[in-house]
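Predict fold of Copper transport protein; 146 aa.
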Amino acid sequence: MDHKGMDGMMMMMQMYFTTDVEVTILFKRWHVKNVGELIGSAIFVCLLAIFYEGLKYFRDYLFRKEALNEGNLNEQRTLMSRLTHRPHVIQTMLHVVQFVISYFLMLIFMTYNVWLCISVALGAGVGFFLFGGMRDIAVHITEHCH
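Predicted 3D structure, encoded as tokens:
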């Protein structure tokens, strides 16, 4: 089955790993054309994956902190007051940011560019090394694509 792009040219998704320098990352305007741009993009992707791991830890930290505060207050709240409670609103916003970043990282990996895939994996590893030891073992509610 042929799929035609908007300009009439045949568009096929690459389904194999490649070491090509030229790659489009997430957005049409983020088109890497040379080694320097690829290295810069790989560093940015690695930092994004580290940030993602840090965000998971930070959300766990906020969750534990709020759970301790709620336990100390021992008050019953209505559904509306729970939904509009400031810590819940902050957690919701952070969840959305984490969700978007997780899918960005997945889509970057799906470029099948070896250098970008290594950057995602390396960033996830470094991020887990830096933040994973601080996470509560019992609370892993913030995982998304992996």
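The mean pLDDT is 83.
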